[in-house]
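Continuing the batch. This is chain 6 of the set; chains 1 through 5 are on the previous pages. Same settings as before, nothing changed between runs. Recording input and output for traceability.
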Amino acid sequence: MDFLMPRKSAFSVHALLPALLAVVAPVPGNGATGTADSSALDLPEMTVQGERRETGAVEVKSDFIRKMPGFLNDPVRAVSFSPGVVVQNDLNVRPLVRGGDMNQTTVVLDGIPLAQPYHVGGAFSLFNLNSVESVELYREDFPVEYPGVLSGVVNLKTKTPGLADKAKVKSNLSLIRG
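Output for chain 6:
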């Protein structure tokens, strides 16, 4: 593709679109002589190295959540103790991460994004703490598995069922949570 200069000139500019480079060459028949300067196109070789950085996840185990006062054994509400995270108010458990909106934080259960993991108008999450092993909170450096996340990711990991040596029974009575 040739682009001619606005004034009458002895040179024209040829653009090489794949490489996005320009070469100045004489226009044949104008009587001008000149050579293209190819030394401007020679670039030194550059090697870029880096180290893989760990993601900025905060992990909270379910045993720790049980000991935390004021969270009603709710694993999603429990991440609000982390810096930069608040819940909307006392009647809504939806986390707001780093000033983002409630729709900009994604809740994920074992790798599956959930649309509305809340009940009673958002007052409680749907998760029973007895079935949750840990909760991970990503405030920045989201993994690639969560595209479109703007503010944060709350990743819940469920316990793996196994054969226990003895049977266990856990109960929870709450007049507030139901």
